[in-house]
Amino acid sequence: MNENLFASFIAPTILGLPAAVLTILFPPLLIPTSKYLINNRLITTQQWLIKLTSKQMMTMHNTKGRTWSLMLVSLIIFIATTNLLGLLPHSFTPTTQLSMNLAMAIPLWAGTVIMGFRSKIKNALAHFLPQGTPTPLIPMLVIIETISLLIQPMALAVRLTANITAGHLLMHLIGSATLAMSTINLPSTLIIFTILILLTILEIAVALIQAYVFTLLVSLYLHDNT
Amino acid sequence: MLSRVVLSAAATAAPSLKNAAFLGPGVLQATRTFHTGQPHLVPVPPLPEYGGKVRYGLIPEEFFQFLYPKTGPYVLGTGLILYALSKEIYVISAETFTALSVLGVMVYGIKKYGPFVADFADKLNEQKLAQLEEAKQASIQHIQNAIDTEKSQQALVQKRHYLFDVQRNNIAMALEVTYRERLYRVYKEVKNRLDYHISVQNMMRRKEQEHMINWVEKHVVQSISTQQEKETIAKCIADLKLLAKKAQAQPVM
User: Fold this and answer.
1) At CB < 8 Å, which residues of chain B contact A?
2) Residue B89 backbone phi and psi in degrees, to 5
3) So what's the pLDDT on residue A208?
4) How many Cβ atoms sit within 10 Å of the Cβ of residue A142?
5) In this structure, what are the phi and psi dihedrals at residue A48, rounded to the nearest 5 degrees?
6) Looking at CA atoms only, how far is residue B65 from chain A in angstroms?
7) Is B117's CB within 8 Å of A200's CB?
């Protein structure tokens, strides 16, 4: 049971070769590009969605912040498609691996911090002390702010990993519970319904992309503008 | 530079090559071909209007057509599924239920919101086409308006002679009026001068008459002697007495 439960989180290999690379490279195939103005419905809706999200995300940045727009939009699309594809049965979600999330979070966060320190060093250092703190609290507050800054990438990565992994695990558990209950018919229908509800809530894993990109966004914004 | 020298030498040698001298720097790139013929993307190959027909969202229609002469596709499908289940090639596990729920939610979502999304996408495309169409129509309308104004201007040019005639008439009338005014003024001036002469003459004649009358009177008065005067006065008094007597007699009746 234990082995079976976490089996879906093992990075897949085909004869010793990592197939996780293929899994990671697969989602872009679902978002076609087109050189025509009038496309089929799939491309039209996808283009419209991407336009909507990019507009929503990038309006609050200045010119320098908007140079990150390609990075952020591709980030949100990648995480969204990967999470949604992981909901299919017997599929592997790369974002359940902490290694991948750390590899995404640390460079992006470090990029924003370094950019902030390079351009406006006084502003960047000023973040360590919020306005209007009473004088005796200053040393403690600086330490706390430093810790909160340094913990940001870890928080980003671990948040994503934990949420997706927990969701998948829960689905697996409740599925096995229905399997066990299927010999005893009466409560099984109820539990299948809870699976359904859990699934729709889990499809708000897409909201995690929002959470991920937004926190990244907010930190970038703060570093750039203020 | 050397190529230029060579080319100029060649030009002097063979006059037909003189035109080639202008291509001096381009000779090096003559081996590269730029913009010869149509690029492959033009004309753009048209997209098919609808995708291939699919049953159950997964299996293309051609599969069914392919199988119909040989075996029923549904029987084949059912048989395969039952075979996989009974031989435990496909194991019913926890994943089965998750799969069922995921696919159930997906099918429900597609059935419920599919047409809405399709209409939305169609509307987006139609909006794009409508925008382009609008631009084209606006351009055509603009040009049409320009053509119409040009035509009306041309028509106006045809009728310009009316304007010139009217202006000419006006000017002729003005000239006529001034001529007549001046004529009248001349007439008045001449009459003025003639009147002056006439009045001078009249005055002279009147003065002469008065003078003559005065002269005659004076001389007549001078010529009446005193004796004649007494005689005439006595005669007058006698006449008056007679008249008085005649007059008195009348009112008694």
Assistant:
1) 41, 44, 47, 51, 92-105, 117-118, 120-122, 124-125, 128-129, 132
2) -70, -40
3) 67
4) 14
5) -65, -40
6) 26
7) no
Higher pLDDT, B29 or B104: B104
Does residue B20 register a pLDDT over 50? no
Look at A41 and B102 and tell me if their CB atoms are within 8 Å.
no
Nearest Cα residue to A47 out of B49, B128, B45: B128
Average pLDDT, chain A: 80
pLDDT digits (tens, 9 = 90+) for B69-109: 787 888 888 999 999 989 888 888 777 888 888 888 888 88
Q: Is A111 exposed, middle or buried (0-12, 13-18, 19+ CB in 10 A)?
A: middle
CA distance A207 to A54: 15
> Which residue would you say has higher pLDDT here, A202 or B182?
B182
Average pLDDT estimate for A178-201: 74
Inter-chain CB proximity B99 and A89 less than 8 Å: yes
Q: For residues A127 and A149, is the Cβ–Cβ distance under 8 A?
A: yes
Query: Residue A14 pLDDT more than 70?
Result: yes
- Classify strands A13-14 and A17-18 as parallel, antiparallel or unpaired: antiparallel
| Dist CA B246 CA B250 (whole Å) | 7
Give pLDDT, residue B127. Answer: 93
Residue in B closest to A194 by C-alpha: B101
Query: Using CA atoms, how far apart are residues A146 and B88, in angstroms rounded to an integer?
Result: 57
Contacts of B97 in chain A (CB under 8 A): 174-175, 178-179, 192, 195
Phi-psi region of B57 (alpha: psi -120 to 50; beta: other; left: phi over 0): left
The 10s digit of each residue's pLDDT in B175-229 is: 999 999 999 999 999 999 999 999 999 999 999 999 999 999 999 888 887 778 8
Q: Between A and B, how many residue pairs show a Cβ–Cβ distance under 8 A?
A: 76
Distance to chain B for A90, nearest Cα, Å: 7
The pLDDT of residue B237 is above 50: yes
- State the pLDDT at residue A87: 84
Among chain A residues, the shortest Cα distance to B118 is held by A41
Task: Confirm or reject contact between A52 and chain B (CB < 8 A).
Answer: no
Rounded to 5 degrees, what are φ and ψ at A102? -65, -40
**Do the beta carbons of residue A92 and residue A12 sit within 8 Å?**
yes
Nearest-Å Rg of the Cα atoms of chain B is: 67
SS (H, E, C) B21-89: HHHHHHHHHHHCCCCCCCCCCCCCCCCCCCCCCEECCCEEHHHHHHHCCCCCHHHHHHHHHHHHHHCCC
- Compute the radius of gyration of chain A from its Cα atoms: 22
